[in-house]
Amino acid sequence: MFGVSPGKGNWETVALNDAVKSALLRNPTYTPGSTFQQRLCVREFWKQELTKIANEYVKGQKNRSAYEADILRLQETMNNKFCQAFQSRSTRCDPVFRVAHAQKSLSLVLKHFWCNGAIEEPPACPVDRLILTIAEAPFGSRTWTSVNSIQAYRCQLAFLDKAAKAAFQSVAVWELLNFK
Question: In the Cβ-directed half-sphere of 40, how many Cα atoms lie within 13 Å?
Fold first, then answer.
């Protein structure tokens, strides 16, 4: 039986590290002046949460609605635990662990699990500028880092769904074959 145990030193660890690193790339997250130790604490907790969610997919396939609920649960958990660690775009506590962070990290973990045979095909794929460009999303719709609602996420995923449908493939297969 597959399961994730952070620190194992295998593909599961690679999956968790890749997911967090990719979600942070070009996606400002932390409060300026945060220490390495504070950031490490956030990343380790984030990986633990991804582990919990990924293990649910090991037990059985989920549909896209459940996947979206998992994105929102991850976002909420991270913001509740680390509100002060995340950069705010306003004067009030408006934490910026966004849907963008949650979807990118969760979808990458699930992609690794799928490619390693631990789960069935995931209900969605990682959304970022590169894959939106390949899907020929309008130029103004390619910025994924500011996405902070399921509605905005669905709009971006719709471009990928359309491209996948045109290729007679699921979105997960289409992304896997087209992501360079």
Answer: 3
Q: Other CB atoms closer than 10 Å to residue 162's CB: what's the count?
A: 14
List own/partner pairs for 63-70 with CB under 8 A and 24 or more apart: 63/123, 64/123, 64/124, 66/123, 67/106, 67/122, 67/123, 67/124, 68/150, 68/153, 68/154, 70/106
Residue type, position 178, single letter: N
d(CA 17, CA 92): 31
Pair of tokens at residue 77: 């958990």
- 38-54 in b/e burial notation, b at 16+ Cβ within 10 A? ebeebeeebbebbbebb
**Tokens representing residue 164 in the block:** 């996948």
Give the tokens for residue 26. Answer: 């070009």
Would you mind telling me the total number of residues written for the chain in this entry?
A: 180
Domain boundaries, the chain: 11-178
State the Cα–Cα distance between residues 39 and 43, nearest whole angstrom.
Answer: 6
pTM of the predicted protein model: 0.88
Q: Could you read off the pLDDT tens digit of each residue along the chain, which spans 180 residues?
A: 344 444 445 999 999 999 999 988 876 677 777 778 888 989 999 999 999 999 999 999 999 999 999 999 999 999 888 877 776 554 444 557 889 999 999 999 999 999 999 999 999 999 999 999 999 989 888 888 888 899 999 999 999 999 999 999 999 999 999 987
